[in-house]
Amino acid sequence: MGLATFDGPQLVILDEPTNHLDIDSRAELIEAINDYEGACVLISHDRRLLEACVDRLWLVADGGVRPFDGDMDDYRRFVLAKTSGDEAERDEREREARRSQAEQRREAAKARRDLAPLRKEIEAAEEKMRRFADLLARVDEALAKPDAFASDAVKAVELARQRRELEKALIAAEELWLALSSEAEKVG
Predict the structure, then answer these.
(1) Which of 76, 106, 111, 172 would you label with 19, given CA atoms 20 to 30 Å apart?
(2) What pLDDT digit, counting tens, does each position of 1-57 carry?
């Protein structure tokens, strides 16, 4: 703008000139702009000022400036149509988000239904592990008695055999539990 006015053409640039002016001062400004013999570039949101002073409108939008064919009423319709388009686009995004959320809820419900039998199997495996661990603890307690082998050697040998079987059963239950848990993680 400085280069445009360097050689002294009659050009006035006014950016929001009615800001902080009272009604009488605005009327005087409109009269002064209309009486001015040179060119005036007027940047304003004041519709009354624009309607009273301008003979050409330029649209500053989308990173550029271009002539606007029409008057202030046409500009109003242009802005409202663009806003309505933006609102329609926003409404569509919101509808899509709601659909997406509903779909996610349906998928989560389906996953919970699909996982229910697997969760029951996991709980059953956990119960087996607890029972085998309890039985192992009882057998270990009986074998830990100082006279376990001295008083009844046959019974002690039988307890040792039972312990091996319980230990194998506990390991099998733990492996089943791990496999089921891994499968549940993949599904859910």
Answers:
(1) 76
(2) 667 667 767 888 899 999 999 999 999 999 999 999 888 889 988 888 988 998 888
Beta strands in the chain (DSSP E): 11-15, 39-43, 57-61, 64-68
pLDDT digits (tens, 9 = 90+) for 92-128: 777 777 777 778 778 877 877 888 888 899 999 999 9
Helix axes of 153-187 and 72-144: crossing angle, nearest 10 degrees? 170
The tokens for 134 are 């309890």
- SS3 category, 160: helix
What b-and-e string marks burial along 178-188, b requiring 16 or more CB atoms within 10 Å of the CB? eebbeeeeeee
pLDDT at residue 130, rounded to an integer: 93
pTM above 0.85?
Answer: no
What residue segments make up the domains of the chain, in order of their start? 11-55, 80-181
Checking phi first, is residue 51 left (phi over 0); if not, alpha (psi -120 to 50) or beta? alpha
Q: Sign (positive/negative) of CA torsion 72, 73, 76, 81? A: negative
| Nearest Cα residue to 32 out of 14, 44, 55 | 14
